[in-house]
Design brief:
By secondary structure, the protein is mainly alpha-helical. It has helices at residues 9-13, 16-46, 56-104, 108-128, 143-146, 151-168, 174-199, 204-229, 233-254, 267-281. The protein is elongated, with a radius of gyration of 27 Å.
Length: 285
C-alpha cells in the first residue's frame, strides 16, 4: 500500500503512479487519438463543412456515466475498506488471544504452541487470499498443516484442540476455555468475511455494461467535437478517455484488496505486526 502525505499537492500531482497508469493506457489512447484524427480529417478535409451535431446527448450521457463511475468506485472502496477492517480486527483478536493464553497458563509448551499457531494462521490466511498471485507463497512453518486442503482451518482446529486438551487436564477452567474459544471463533469469522470479499466479485453484467458505456461514449465524442474544437478534438478526446478509463482502472485495482498491487492492503506488514506482538506476549518467562 502506498503511504503518502495528503497535504503535499505537488508530490501527488506528479507522482509516478500517474505515469504507470499512462503507460498502461498509452496504446489505447494512441488508438483513440488516431481514430479522432481520422474523423477530423474526414469532416474538415473531405466534407465541405463539419457535421453540426448537438452536444446535448453527450451531456446527458456524461451525467449518467458519472453516476455509474461514482457507484463503481464506491463499491470498490467499500470492498477495500471492509478488508482493512477485518484485518484490523484480526490484529486485535490475535493480541487478545495471546494475552489470555499467557495469563491463563504457565506452561511454556502451551506458550510455544500458540506462539507458532497464531502467526501461522495469519500467514496461512494471507496466502489463502492470494490464490492467483504470481510467485511462490510462503508455506506455514508446520509441514503437517501446509498440506491441508484449507490451511487456515487446520491452524484454527489445531489451536482449538490444544485448548480442549488444556480444559480436560484442568489447566483451564470452563470460563477460561470459553474466552479462548471466543477468540478462535472470531478468527474463523474473519476468515469467512475475507473469503466472502475474495469470492464475490462485482457482478459481471454491471462491469461489462460500464466498460461498453465508456467505450461507446468516448468513440462518439469526436463526431460532436470536431465542429467546436476542430483539430483540437484529438487531445481533448484523449484527455476525456484517460480520465474515464483511469477511474475504472483504479476501481479494478482496489476491488480485490488482498493482492499485491500498489494500492492493495499491506498484508505482509500486518502479518509481521501480529507475529511480533505474539512473540512479545508469549515470549520465554
Amino acid at each position: 500500500m502506498i503511504h503518502y502525505n495528503p497535504k503535499s499537492w505537488f508530490s501527488l500531482i506528479f507522482h509516478t503512479y500517474n505515469r504507470q497508469v499512462m503507460r498502461k493506457l498509452l496504446p489505447a489512447m494512441a488508438a483513440m487519438g488516431a481514430f479522432t484524427a481520422a474523423i477530423c480529417y474526414l469532416e474538415l478535409e473531405v466534407l465541405e463543412e463539419p457535421m453540426e451535431v448537438s452536444n446535448v446527448v453527450h451531456s446527458l450521457l456524461g451525467f449518467v456515466l458519472s453516476l455509474f463511475l461514482v457507484f463503481r468506485t464506491n463499491t470498490a472502496y467499500d470492498r477495500w475498506w471492509e478488508g482493512r477492517k477485518q484485518w484490523g480486527g484480526l490484529v486485535n483478536v490475535s493480541r487478545t488471544l495471546a494475552i489470555r493464553v499467557r495469563e491463563y497458563s504457565d506452561d511454556e509448551g502451551v506458550h510455544a504452541h500458540f506462539r507458532e499457531s497464531i502467526p501461522g494462521f495469519v500467514k496461512a490466511l494471507r496466502d489463502h487470499l492470494r490464490p492467483s498471485q504470481s510467485g511462490t507463497p510462503q508455506p506455514p512453518a508446520a509441514a503437517k498443516l501446509s498440506t491441508a486442503a484449507h490451511v487456515p482451518n487446520a491452524w484454527a482446529q489445531a489451536m482449538e484442540r490444544r485448548a480442549l486438551a488444556m480444559l480436560r487436564t484442568g489447566d483451564l477452567t470452563n470460563q477460561q476455555h470459553w474466552l479462548i474459544a471466543q477468540n478462535l471463533e472470531r478468527m474463523v469469522d474473519i476468515l469467512g468475511a475475507c473469503e466472502r470479499i475474495l469470492k464475490t466479485p462485482v457482478p459481471y453484467s454491471y462491469s461489462m455494461f460500464l466498460k461498453k458505456f465508456i467505450f461507446l461514449y468516448v468513440v462518439t465524442l469526436p463526431i460532436g467535437f470536431v465542429a467546436t474544437f476542430a483539430w483540437w478534438s484529438v487531445p481533448v478526446v484523449m484527455l476525456v478517455f484517460y480520465i474515464l478509463v483511469s477511474v475504472e482502472l483504479i476501481a479494478e485495482e482496489i476491488e480485490d484488496p488482498f493482492g499485491v498491487d500498489e494500492n492493495d492492503l499491506p498484508l505482509d506488514g500486518l502479518c509481521e505486526t501480529i507475529q511480533g506482538n505474539v512473540e512479545e506476549i508469549l515470549g520465554s518467562t
